[in-house]
Structure formats: C-alpha cells, structure tokens
Amino acid sequence: MHIETLTFSDWGKALPATGFEWSHTPETLRVLDRHAKDVCLYGGYKGQQLVGLLPAVVRTELFATAIISPPPGFGIPQMGPILMPTSPKQRKREIVNKEFTQAILETVAAHDPCTLFGVSCSTTYTDPRPYLWAGFDVESRFTYQLALRSTTPKRVLQSFSREARRGVHNAEEAGITVSQGGIEDARAVYDAHRTRRNEQGDNYPVSWEYTRDLVETLGDRIRVYVAETAAGAFLSGITVVYSNDKGYFFQGGTRTERNGNANELLHWRIIEDILTDPELGSIDRYDLGNANLEPLAHYKSKYDAEPVPHYLIKSGKLMDIVQKAYEIIAY
C-alpha cells in the first residue's frame, strides 16, 4: 500500500458512486480549501488500484502539526476515510482497511509526539478498529437519519409522531408556505441560525463568507428552503446539502416564539421533495444531524428517524485542546 496526494480533479474522478458524505465532494473540498486552507487529498493504492481516500486539513502551528478531517468551525460533522475494496469478502475488506490505515498514519507521521490527529468518520465507515489497535482513542457519536427508499409521502407522514403531524397540518392551516430561495434567503437562514446559537451561548463559528461560497459553488448539491407567512414575511428556513445518496440538514430550523410550526413544515417539504422530485431521484436518506444531545434527540425523533452511529478518532486528550485552538486560528 502506498499513499499519493491527489488533485481536486483526480479526487472527483476517484469518488465511488455512493457511500460518501457531502463533505467529500470536490466542490465542497474546494470551498473548504479557500476558507480553512491546507486541504490535502490522500489516495491509497494497492499496486495501481485505488482502494482508499482521506481528505484532511493539515496545519502546522508552532512546533505541532494537526491533521484534522473535518476541521472544526465549518459546520461539517463527518468526513474521514472512504474505503473502496475490490472484493466483497469480509477478510479482504478488513485487510484493505488495516493496510490503508497503517499507510495513512505513517504518511502523516501520526505517532510523532508533535503530530495531532483527529477524524470524525462518516456513517458508512463502520470499522475503526485499525485506529484503535494503533493506539488512538475511538469514540462513538450519533446522527439521525430517515430512510426514504421504497416508500411514499403518505407512509412517511403517517410514521411521524402525532405532534409532528399536527405541526405540519397547523402550519398549512395558518397559510405558511415553503419555497426554495437564493443567496438572500440563505443569508436570512444563516442570520437566524447564528443569532439563535449565540443566544444559547454556543458562539456559532461558521462564517457567512464560507456559507455564501457553499451556496454559490455547490449548485445542485445545495438547496435553501424558506418558510413565510401568507403576507410573505420570513419565519424560518433550512439549508440542505446533498451527496449522491443523502440529503443533510446544514443550517437553520431555529425555533422562535413567532414562527409557530414552520420548522415542521420545512422538514416535511424537504422530505417530500426527496421522495417526489426527479432531480433528487438518487437520494434515499435524509440526515437531520446531531443525535447526541437529549433535547435535540427528543425533537428529531418525532420524524421517525433512527440514530445511526459514526466514529470519532483522535490522538488523545490533547486533541480536544487543539480543536479549540484551531477554531481561534481559523476565525
């Protein structure tokens, strides 16, 4: 196994048809490189066959080098490695995983005491044991995903809790409408999201410049949904990003005293479009995001989504400090 650094063009050609995150797309990685800087794209080869991919931000500050995938402060919860074994047999898949992991760790000098390594893996990367065996900390995290393959809008709506169904109905009865918007609407969604997070003491780190770049660059891989009153006043909105097979909640959905059930209707329209819009025909899951905090879990579970695990890999407790420091450096 040997590791090569790929160009953005080569990376796009190397991606499999499915099984990767929106953060793995070359469009997203180009945006990230413009704002986080220092994006490196690693490809693992067995002979001439590409079998593994890992994007990361590689940053050297003072006497330490941090390899982080994804970097904090950019609204990306998952990134990490992609495996592309050529055999479906479990043993051979495990060998590819182990050899690719070992080659990556050696390439980035991850065991060096001056190297800090942190990866938040996608839900499709289900076997982090090679990192555990190599001495890294592995922790589980959860995201909520709603499976939408081979179903209908009626069945999905019926699967919602009574509270969620009532919220959708009440919003429609109140004359709230949902439509897709452009850059100005994306700014309204961003401002509402940032204001709410800051009110909660979270100090939301994602910048508008980065968000705008995503909206302008991702094309069909991003949509801005806006909920308005019958008079056209902004109530709420959600920005959704897409991989080849999943839609992801990115920003918005903030609850205020005046927006009523707008968010229930927003999520429902997003789900309806995934089920009925031919342009989204390959999308079969909707990822509602963070399922680790109890209040969020209580809200998101009413859409009948399931908690799906993914893994956080890091080189030790010092990595927590570096992640905080990296946010300060980036902003």
UniProtKB/TrEMBL annotation:
Q: Which domain of life is it from?
A: Archaea
Instruction: List residues of the BioF2-like acetyltransferase domain.
Output: 159-300
SUPFAM superfamilies with a match to the protein in the record: Acyl-CoA N-acyltransferases (Nat)
Q: Which InterPro entries match?
A: Acyl_CoA_acyltransferase (IPR016181), BioF2-like_GNAT_dom (IPR038740), PG_Glycine_Bridge_Synth (IPR050644)
Q: Name one Pfam family in it.
A: Acetyltransf_6
Task: Spell out the protein name for this chain.
Answer: GNAT family N-acetyltransferase
The organism named in the record is Halocatena pleomorpha
